[in-house]
Amino acid sequence: MPPIDVAESLSSGFQKSWNAHDMDAFGALFHDDASFVNRYGMLWIGRSAIREGHRFIHEGVYRDTTVVNKVVRAEEIAPGAVAAHMLSRMTIGPSMPHGPRALNTLMLFIAVQESGQWLIRTAENVAITHPMTDEPVLDWPHPLSPL
User: Fold this and answer.
1) pTM, whole model, 2 decimals?
2) Which residue, 67, 66, 57, is CA-closest to 23?
3) Structural domains for the chain
4) 97 close to 61: Cβ distance less than 8 angstroms
5) pLDDT, tens only, 6-56
6) Which of 68, 145, 75 has the alpha carbon at shortest distance from 109?
7) Which residues contact 118 (CB under 8 A, 6 or more apart)?
8) How far apart are CA 67 and CA 37, in angstroms?
């Protein structure tokens, strides 16, 4: 499978499971030994920690969030390994303490193929709008993004 197809498939699964607040499906996108750094710099290690960490926020302040993702780069970095960058626009509802707004992030993830299945092995999400003020940290929209 071409690297862009791998990345877009995982990005789509991420978006669908996030928007459905289905953290079991979300967790299934990740390798058993995956790591994930969220936009606050918290490190979760292992599929279970990633799933349950996201479940916690989706049952709380993220219960009314949705995301729209767009892969902007994907490349094979080794046989059976793809690195991808994905822009994500999160729409936050009234459940967040500082109210409804939009937040933009850039995620880097590395996917590996095992037994014919592509899974995210590691991911790091970086806010490109300030998480408290919504002021741009990086230029948005990104020149490569149709979002």
Assistant:
1) 0.88
2) 57
3) 3-127 (3.10.450.50)
4) yes
5) 999 999 999 999 999 999 999 999 999 999 999 889 999 999 999 999 999
6) 75
7) 1, 6, 9, 10, 82, 111, 112
8) 17
